[in-house]
Amino acid sequence: MAPLDPHSFTDLTHPLTTHAALSLYFDLPSATIHGAALFTLSSPHSGPLSLDTRALSIHQILSPSTLSPLPFSLSPSPDPIKGTLLSLSLPNDKTLSSFLITFSTSPSSSALQWLSPPQTFNKKHPFVYTQCQSIHARSIFPCQDTPAARIRYSALLNIPRELSAVMSARHVDRRLPVSGEGYSNLLPNGFNSLWCSETRVVEEFDMNQPIPPYLFAFAVGELGFREVGPRTRVYSEAAEGVLEAAAKEFAGTEEMIKQGEKLFGDYEWERFDLLVLPPSFPYGGMENPRMVFLTPTLIKGDASGAQVVAHELAHSWTGNLITNKNNEHFWLNEGFTTYAERRIVEAVQGEDRAVLSIGIGWRGLNKDIERFKDNLELTKLKTNQEGVDPDDVYSRVPYEKGFQFLWHIEHQIGRSAFDEFIKKYIATFKFKSIDTETYLDFLKANVPGIEKEIDLVLWTEEAGIPPDAYEPISNLYTKIVSLANEFKLGKMPREDEVADWQGREWELYLENLPKVVEASQFLRCLK
User: Fold this and answer.
1) Catalytic residue among 237, 249, 287, 312
2) Residue 136 to residue 125: CA distance in whole angstroms
3) pTM of the entire structure?
4) Which helix (H) or strand (E) holds 526?
5) How far is it, in rounded angstroms, from Cα 326 to Cα 522?
6) What gap in Å lies between CA 5 and CA 82, rounded to an integer?
7) Which one of 235, 399, 477, 509 is the catalytic residue?
8) Do residues 23 and 35 lie in contact, with contact meaning Cβ atoms separated by under 8 Å?
């Protein structure tokens, strides 16, 4: 086997999957999905092919033209990080470039979060949503689960008719099920006969742009939406007050999209819809194309949640459009996106808030460098993650050290020149997955002599923070920290000093208060 990714069984000598046509039957009472998937390869292939799975039951693998079975095997014991290797063998047929798999998920699927009615806002219906980053798409359907294998897909989601679905894809139709569509007649365990039940409906989707598997996403529940712009709907559970508050919080999204287009080129994904998930969603946001997932904790009533939306929007150019080849080059996703986010925030909210974000990021970077002092490999931009679960080493390093690297280049060559460079970079590599070496080669070709002005190897391959990194200077950051320090002296900030503060300012203030407070300090503050 010639590995392409330390977190995948994908073999470099095998053709990559270019399209998957999925038919998925959602059995919410058992927290399982029963599916049929037709896969298309980039070229005809005979012999072995390796796919990633995790906690999946594989029922059949068939030739789509004859429905004759194809031999397959599963590795006897799962790898603790990569899951279970699915090996199939394609016949010696120079025209065969597709195969069909029927499968079922497990209630323990690492990508699926099943919520019972009491866990939702409205307490009436169950809810399910996905989180495939970094390597969890393989627990929904068999795939080459590496960012290097960008894939188009279509999907038929068969769900209870009282529910609705959204996906990281174009919504085609909501309609009655059709018997036998999408190989649904081959679904296992009798679910083929339930496909056309009068209690069911099919939501049909299509993603005709190639995306890495970790951006495959859906949510199913009792959903409603509000229009907040020509390209944006805000979705959430159809619960009283939630939709209205979310729509108000994210009303400025279209202006951010316009500023992003000025900076980085056309928005390629047509829609930028937002889904506010139930409180169990474990992240601030997830950048699924066309359908960003957000935590409800962003809804604060002051539009400060726009900072997270700006980050997920920035991914539309850096991360979704250009993607790291594997997680060892994660900084290409997050360092670029952190830079792009702050440029969008600067354009929409002003320089002070952008620089405040840089200051908060610098503080977080230094904390994580200290956190990994016994594992300095994880303080590099380009890392070695062989035998490492990417979920176990998540940190601010790829975000903030990556930002610092790009910010340093901007300072060195000037903002105008760097803006032109980024636009050219995005136009050159859009819908591709690249590694650090590819980026550095492009940088040196388009900014001649940059390797003499900045030590590129030091920045990308060495541990820690390089000595020529720029420590940000933010008057607002300094003021907030100063006010927090004054608390120790018994002084509370005046109303006029905090009148313009939003969520991030208050968070920074609270983080800098003493962890232990004596009663006497409170008494002094109240005088």
Assistant:
1) 312
2) 25
3) 0.94
4) helix 519-526
5) 51
6) 10
7) 399
8) yes
